[in-house]
Amino acid sequence: MLILTCPCCGAEADETELASGGEAHIQRQGPESTDAAFEAYLFQRKNPSGVHFERWRHAFGCGKWFHAARCTRTLEVFGTYTAQSLKPPKWILDRIRKRRPDWAGPLP
Amino acid sequence: MKRYSAFAIAKEAFRHQLGWERAWRSPEPKPEYEVIIVGAGGHGLATAYYLGKNHGITNIAILEKNWLGGGNTGRNTTIIRSNYLQDASAAIYEKARSLYETLSQDLNYNVMFSPRGVAMLAQTHHEVRGYRRTARANAIQGVETEFIGSEQVKALCPIINVDGPRFPVLGALWQPRGGTARHDAVAWGYARACSDMGMDIIQNCAVTAVRRTGGTVTGVETTRGAVGCRKLGIVVAGHSGVLAAMAGFRLPVESVALQALVSEPVKPCMDIVVMANTVHGYMSQSDKGELVIGGGADGFNNYTQRGSFHHVEETVRALVETFPIISRLRMLRQWAGIVDMTGDRSPILSKTPLENCFINCGWGTGGFKAIPGSGWAMAELMAKGEPGPLAAPFGLDRFREGRFIDESVAAGVAH
After folding, report:
1. Which of A26, A55, B104, B375 shows the greatest Cβ crowding within 10 Å of its Cβ?
2. Which of B207, B208, B259, B301 to mutate to probe the A interface, most A CBs <10 Å?
3. pTM above 0.90, yes or no
4. Which of B234, B300, B408 best probes binding to A when mutated, by most A CB atoms within 10 angstroms?
5. What are the pLDDT digits (tens) for A16-71?
6. How far, in Å, CA of B236 to CA of B103, rounded?
7. What is the DSSP string of A4-18?
8. Which numeric CATH code is attached to A47-101?
9. From the candidate CATH numbers 3.40.50.2300, 2.60.120.200, 3.40.47.10, 3.50.50.60, the one assigned to the domain spanning B29-78+183-252+344-410
10. Which residues of chain B neighbour A107 with C-beta distances below 8 Å?
11. Other CB atoms closer than 10 Å to residue A8's CB: what's the count?
12. CATH T-level assignment (fold) for domain B115-177+255-341
């Protein structure tokens, strides 16, 4: 069972208490963007087998959104961080690199 | 290939069963093929089979990371039906269902297709309306279904409790020509027929990179060396995103774990397939007597193939209300498969941004029923380079154009 620590209230919550919000750090596109960019924003997903950055909501707890870094292949959790992040913070990237030395970094 | 027949069984009985040959060869990969199919599951093998049978292309390698039919083909709940709402879906799923009817004879391999009938229970008034609509759509599409009342459901499957307190059975969408088949046999039958046509099925051979020159595919690199090809077909279900990344494009697909479980074997107690989509559970009885139960999918990206116990609990809790008779049954095994979900819950059969590279994915939670139709349409797409009428609506471009084939609500499938 997947267990994440909510950075907002500090509670350790399992997946029955959480709602997944899908891929994190997606750049929003507006009326000025190209069709290709808008399609990518709406539909195309990285869907990696390995390290993934996601949005989660502590739905049956404090109700707040946050970010999590975890491995989709093993369910190993690298850490959770605040929803007010436009990209993964350095400390979490360092922690992932320490545990996964051959990791190539976040997908572009 | 030695044909399987009653005569062959009788003949072998007189010589200690020593005359049987291996169902398929296990050759070393050649340096170059006309077509490479990545993924030797049902869809990949069916694609290769119909490339050979319908289009005369037999210089084909089918590369498989693990063993043949060991992914979702060996993990599903074997339900076959075609009662979809949208015309494009009904066409391809009905093609598949009709091919299943004669697949055993076609492949000379018993896939144990059992058209025992599929009942999709309507347990809310919303579902009653939805299924009545689907039944009418199916009548126009030429798919034989009907909406039946709860007393008919009770007559078809006496172990159903139609007066449950939370989810009474108000009726069902009944497809009498739906049913089940032996999932492994489907993969094995196609594999045997492919091997007989001279195609190479190469197991334990993971693709590690896609080779391209300019914008055209030229082959793949694998754990057993580089293999060249003129055309590449990616048919890898849950790992489609990984292969697409190797080929240099991104898909509108997310992979999640969908799980199933089986009970201990019991005497025959239900002879139809029952799907209860409101409560996310479906059940049928296998020939061994086990009740085969399918549950819901995880709500997050997952490649672990192991599922989670709270989903088992949810599924079983809901089914016990509808089938009180199973409350004392012990469950023997549970497992999960990685399914590739698209936004509109319809598959992708398409050309890709990489020239001569084709993809067949996005079957999500319901790929098994589509195997022959999917292979048929994918073979046509790969042989001609352009999709035929079955595959045309399922192109990748539908996401850019907003031309969805929305089955997520329409079909009422348990997702």
Report:
1. B375
2. B301
3. yes
4. B300
5. 999 999 999 998 998 899 999 999 999 999 999 999 999 999 999 999 999 999 99
6. 22
7. EE-TTT--EEEGGG-
8. 3.30.2270.10
9. 3.50.50.60
10. 245
11. 17
12. D-Amino Acid Oxidase; Chain A, domain 2 (3.30.9)
